[in-house]
Design a protein that fits this description.
The protein is an alpha/beta fold. It has 8 helices and 15 strands. A hairpin with a 5-residue loop joins strand 9 and strand 10. Helix 1 packs across helix 7 and helix 3 packs parallel to helix 4. 46% of the residues are buried. The chain binds NADP nicotinamide-adenine-dinucleotide phosphate (NAP). The site of NADP nicotinamide-adenine-dinucleotide phosphate has 20 residues, from helix 1.
């Protein structure tokens, strides 16, 4: 198989999504160059599993390794900023899992460091890289759907109140907003022509004090509106709805969507559009990151990441959800 991976990637973290990244690299015909992890033995078995030759005794050694071009960060949210500081200051490009930081202040610092060191910084937001959205945007840009008016977006998964995982644990920056709200808001931001500046919301707290459930009403200067309901304690379909003047678009499993259905309201006719494959989500992300690093088209949408982080920061301030690192 052709090797479509041009750069040397190091992964910081070997959990669920770290394994997915290693699988994506293999599927692209390449491999991760190196791995580092808090628990060294897990890095060793990860390296064995994927045939990676370089394992660091201390994951921070990857910042000083001259062979490393791009670092992929897949540790919990509250650990990101420290890793970003060191990686960006060492001149490494970084693709960091969502949510990229805890708040806008941290993100501003990371963006500044990336600029100072002339490197690419991006959040690993799969939906920004799914081919279905390019196809959908081509149709939207023809103008036949008219202007976008309303977005509805839900995301819910059922997680137990288990403090051993990150979901409800304030010490691991748990809560629905940073864990899944970030997807819903990224979808909203990607389709709105300006970021929402009027936001109302309701919260239901988990027993640990983080946000278990949140509903949001958002509007931007152009009058485009969105409703978003997220929950970490009930399952909902990952369904996105875009309502235009002349029709509406439904998209399922939207963070890694591959199919959308357009209904034209004048005659009720339907158009099914398909592009890309859900299982290749991380491959698209890797290829876009490599393109950006090569100096080609930068499709990493960092401005959207900043806009979404500003919304989430404002909502957590409103609901007084403060993580230990922020006190
Ligand atoms: N984009 C997506 O589709 C997607 C999907 C899932 C998760 N994520 C994001 O990816 C990140 C990790 O999620 P995951 O599900 O892969 O988690 P996970 O399976 O629990 O793995 C977490 C990884 O982070 C390391 N880690 C934990 N605490 C740490 C600390 N204090 N300092 C340094 N390393 C630490 C763990 O190391 P040990 O081996 O030492 O425990 C492990 O390698 C989260 O930010 C999450 O939101 C994204």
């Amino acid at each position: 198989m052709d090797n479509n991976v041009r750069y040397n990637w190091a992964t910081y973290g070997v959990g669920v999504i770290g394994n997915e990244l290693a699988g994506a690299m293999k599927a692209l015909g390449g491999n991760l160059y190196s791995v580092g992890n808090r628990t060294h033995e897990k890095a060793v078995s990860f390296a064995k599993k994927y045939g990676i030759s370089k394992v660091y005794d201390d994951p921070d050694e990857m910042f000083e390794d001259p062979k490393v071009d791009i670092i992929y960060v897949s540790t919990p949210h509250n650990t990101h900023i420290d890793i970003l500081r060191k990686a960006l200051s060492s001149g490494k490009h970084v693709l960091c899992e969502k949510s990229i930081t805890l708040n806008s202040k941290e993100l501003e610092e990371a963006v500044r460091l990336a600029k100072e060191n002339n490197v690419i910084l991006a959040e690993a937001m799969t939906l920004y890289h799914m081919p279905i959205y390019n196809k959908l945007n081509d149709i939207i840009n023809t103008g036949r759907l008219g202007n976008l008016k309303i977005i509805q977006m839900n995301f819910g998964s059922y997680k137990d109140y288990d403090m051993n995982n990150r979901f409800f644990n304030p010490n691991l920056a748990g809560g629905a907003l940073l864990d899944i709200g970030v997807y819903a808001l990224s979808f909203v931001r990607m389709f709105m022509d300006k970021t929402p500046d009027k936001i109302e919301a309701q919260v239901k707290y988990a027993p640990t004090g983080v946000d278990e459930q949140m509903s949001m009403l958002l509007m931007n200067e152009s009058g485009q509106m969105a409703t978003v309901i997220i929950s970490l304690h009930t399952k909902q379909p990952k369904r996105g709805l875009l309502a235009f003047e002349n029709g509406y678009v439904e998209i399922y499993e939207y963070p890694r969507g591959e199919k959308a259905v357009i209904t034209y309201t004048a005659d009720g006719s339907r158009e099914v559009i398909e592009s890309g494959e859900t299982k290749r989500a991380l491959e698209y992300e890797v290829l876009d990151m490599e393109e950006a690093v090569s100096g080609g088209m930068n499709n990493m949408k960092l401005q959207y990441t900043e806009d979404v982080m500003e919304i989430m920061t404002g909502l957590r301030e409103k609901f007084k959800i403060v993580y230990p690192e922020e006190k």
